[in-house]
Amino acid sequence: MVVTNLLNGLVRIMNLQSLLVMTVGVVVGILAGAMPGISPSMGVALMVPFTFKMDPSNALISAVTINTPGTPSAAVTSFDGYPMCKQGRAGWGLGMSLVASVVGGIFSVIILIAFAGPLAKVALKFWPQEYFSLAVLGLSATASLGGKDWLKVLVSTLIGLLLCTVGMDPILGVKRFNFNYVPLYDGFTFIPALIGLLAISEVLSEISEFNFVTQNVTAALKTSWPGIRDYWKVKWTMLRASVIGTIVGIFPGAGATIAAFISYDIERRISRTPERFGTGIPEGVCAGEAADSASVGGALVPMLTLGIPGSATTAVLIGALMIHDLQPGPELFTKHPDVVFNLYSSMFVANIIMLFVGTWGSRIWVNVTRVRKEILFPFIFSFALIGSYAVRSSMVDVAICIGFGILGWILRKFKFPLPPMVLGMVLGTMAEVNLRRAVMIGGTWAVFQRPISLVLLILSAMSFALPIYGEIKRRKKKAA
Known about the structure:
This protein has about 475 residues and is an all-alpha fold. It contains 20 helices and two strands.
């Protein structure tokens, strides 16, 4: 029955109008992901008004296909993607990330079709205790993100967590650490902070260390691209990351960033050469990108089956559905099954379109690596500031971007890893809010009283302890 409905949906969308809508949606989604400060949720929100006069199926197709990854979660891809680029293998990085993204997207759609109902019911059983433990499990990924110096990793993570305390208390509504400065009542705007931390700091580091006089022009070099055998070597990495991304994406509030960090951490732990992660290896690129993309389909599970948004973007999608008098939830499957299966089919086709569009576009964008750095750096700096301003049309966000850029540059100078700080900023609020809710519900030891929460905390403790224990053991062995 499901296969028949899926094939019928595929037949219904195989017309010029639907294919054009999907292509435009994919292109807009890729552009939204490529522009600093423009998130998928923002791209969907901007495009929703254009769907008002469309057929409901095409309107939903347009909105969903814009939801391509390109936000904080993509920072995980850069851990190995950027070193690849610096090594002259930008084509490898782009090729691996593109195919991993498509594989993750298609896998999540299959799971969405097969297990939407049961998986959504599991997600509903998560209480604040489980969400706090999930955040702690995500934070435990920092134990393997900083290499051998676990103390610097800890300090970087704590800085990220402390930055989350600036602004209004999420439970009591009182101001904290904002020095009575009104624009900071909501805390630091995350996207400008992230742009500054990862982009501006990199530009400042390169400028301080790079010798522009002796720069070699590499425009004549040809960029290599991975082949079928290269993709086949990382097939299990893509599959593992797709499973993790889909599962984490189902839980409302968890999101693609947590999925990408957890996937990257797990892949590093099971690797025979964990020390190579962060130096530019395909497994590192695929782990983050496949999980990132798979979480998109996962987030649609609670939205379609229960009407609960699994992410900021699916919250916008609910609004797009309501514009066309479609109420997400169980009745959507009974009253409008054609819309649901049209959506499923379109997500398959959209991923294929993204593969072709991305392949074509990547071969153009890879040429950016051949631009002289005295030209490239001012462009990166300008786009970072424009993207920061675009988030809320605020010069305060531009100042936040520059401030975090300087902070990131200082941390880089003293060899403090930035990924743990990013993860601390991402998960800090989630951990704090859910811990306090759990304590209000069940008392001081509430997080240890629910089985799933306890299991997650035990896994987190092991995740923290094992890398430290392994490093101590290696030092003893080396000393002996």
